[in-house]
Design brief:
With about 120 residues, the protein is mainly α. The protein is about 55% helix and about 10% strand. A two-stranded parallel ribbon has the order 1-2. α4 packs across α5. The longest helix is centred in the last third of the chain and has 19 residues. The chain is globular and about 45 Å long.
């Protein structure tokens, strides 16, 4: 709703502010950003201080997830959000690779199994 209401630039301003605020908190939060967070250099600098896990999924899998979601996500340009996925994935991939200490193929795997695998890989579980 915020993206549709405010536009992408203002949304990204809020996203950066929220990321900065969360990372200033004590403790070790688990934070799930949107994929677009990596598009801003300031956000990449903040994320570079963290242990980032890239939950990679094929754009077709992501499109199917979006189609099943009862809350539609707005497209950033003309066309549908699902149609934008492949282009966005290609545009963002280098940043994801640069930031990620771990890449996990999320595909169709069950969420609990993914989480256990991540904890094990990060030597936390």
């Amino acid at each position: 709703e915020l993206l549709a209401e405010l536009g992408e630039s203002a949304f990204r301003d809020l996203e950066e502010s929220a990321l900065r605020a969360v990372l200033q908190c004590d403790g070790a939060p688990v934070l799930a950003t949107g994929g677009g967070a990596v598009e801003r250099a300031a956000c990449r600098e903040l994320l570079a201080r963290c242990r980032c896990v890239w939950l990679r999924a094929d754009p077709q899998v992501l499109a199917a997830r979006m189609a099943a979601d009862p809350v539609p996500r707005p497209a950033l340009g003309s066309g549908s959000a699902a149609d934008e996925l492949a282009g966005l994935a290609q545009q963002r991939e280098a940043w994801f690779v640069q930031l990620a200490c771990l890449v996990v193929e999320s595909g169709e795997e069950e969420v609990g199994a993914l989480a256990r695998g991540i904890l094990t890989a990060l030597d936390l579980g």
